[in-house]
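Good day; I would like, with your permission, to put a structural problem before you. I would ask you to consider whether the tokens describe a fold that such a sequence might reasonably adopt. The full record is reproduced below for your convenience:
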Amino acid sequence: MTTPQEVLSQLPGGRVLDVATGAGNFIHFLLEGLPTYTEIIGIDNNERAASAFAAAFKDRPDIRFELMDATSLNFEPESFDLVCISNSLHHFDDPAAVLRQMERVLRPGGHLLVSEMYRDNQTDTQLTHVHLHHWWAAIDQANGVAHNETYQRQELVELVAGLGLEPLAQYDLSELESNPKDPAILTELEPVFERYLQRAEGHPEIQALGVELRQRVMQIGFHSATTLVILAQKPDAKP
């Protein structure tokens, strides 16, 4: 089975843009697969992400961060060879507008890479992750932060298809071999529960859901939800 890393190894990285990069976690994935690149730019509208990004790539002058709104990319049209977004589309009120901006700055012949978890066709242990993510979204929304529930798989396919790019590949990535009740996972999630329960103060119904989900993690277990990776190519300009 061909892996996304194997597909990346065949792409000319060139100039790369990672949208909604945060601390640059997805860039590490790109670096595992891309054979070459000239420059990688990560953009995010969260000022706090800048310092974490800078620390992660302090020895890589060809990888840099720019503070920017994904719905209004401050780049010239057709100026990137590879444009990516990972697990962030559901954080936007208008994800289609973000994708249109990504298509605008993608050169003809360049590649679009979208990676996003989805909520349907998951195992019970994966549904724990989905329910947790939706709980986090509800807390963010209660605090005025844009964060929607995750998409169904077909919704993601249709969002990307709406750009009119040439579809190249789709991959469903999951990892179900680990012990879903591994004590290390429970230990890792505990401070996350505490942080979000504090953020949910003043919303007793949301806090109660968090208590239920904490019990679910212990009783059913946790696996990360399956992620859909979509690779598409912008058609070459017509002569």
